[in-house]
Amino acid sequence: MSPRAPTEASKIIVLDRDGVINQDSSDYIRSAEEWIPIEGSIEAIARLHKRGYKIVIASNQSGLARGYFDEAALAEMHDKLNLLVENAKGLVSAIFYCPHSADAGCSCRKPKTGLLEQAEIELGISLVDSYFVGDS
Q1: What end-to-end distance do the CA atoms of the chain give, in Å?
Q2: Residues 94-125: pLDDT tens digits?
Q3: What is the dihedral of CA 96, 80, 12, 43, to 10 degrees?
Q4: Catalytic residue among 18, 24, 70, 79
Q5: What are the Cα distances from residue 21, in Å, to 1, 57, 67, 103, 126?
Q6: Cα 95 to the center of its chain, rounded Å
Q7: Cβ-count burial 76-106 (b if 16+ within 10 Å, e if not)
Q8: Is-catalytic flag, 129?
Q9: pLDDT tens digit string along 55-86?
């Protein structure tokens, strides 16, 4: 039996960032210099993009609330990620992140669905039948 062709909705893959795309740290990734991709992750994103998948990243970034890094440092990390993927001939369609601490009670901190709802609204997509890859 051959695998079914992906539907338009399942052509979207949502990836967590830390521990899926880049190496994670219990001390938090605080700068672009500390942001180190996991071997093969950038190339995998590029291959998925070339096969018609839209890549969306959804990530908890409580280091912002804790004061470990600021929005500018986070933007530099994401710029590095995007540049590496583009150099591999891929594309990340969007990056969404929760800046709150775990005890903030927000709706955007995964595993709650606020980031996914935000992605649907901002990108005009449905994530029904899409794939989500996380490390925990």
Answers
A1: 31
A2: 999 999 999 999 999 999 999 999 999 999 99
A3: -160
A4: 18
A5: 31, 10, 23, 25, 23
A6: 6
A7: bbbebbeebbeebebbbeebbbbbbeeeeee
A8: no
A9: 999 999 999 999 999 999 999 999 999 999 99
Beta bridge partner(s), residue 15: 57, 133
Residue 16 annotated among the catalytic residues of the structure: yes
**What is the torsion angle, in degrees rounded to the nearest 10, for the CA atoms of residue 108, residue 113, residue 114 and residue 118?**
130
What's the pTM? 0.90
CA distance 47 to 43: 6
Report the candidate in 29, 107, 103, 42 with the shortest Cα–Cα distance to residue 73: 29
φ, ψ at 107 (rounded to 5°): -90, -5
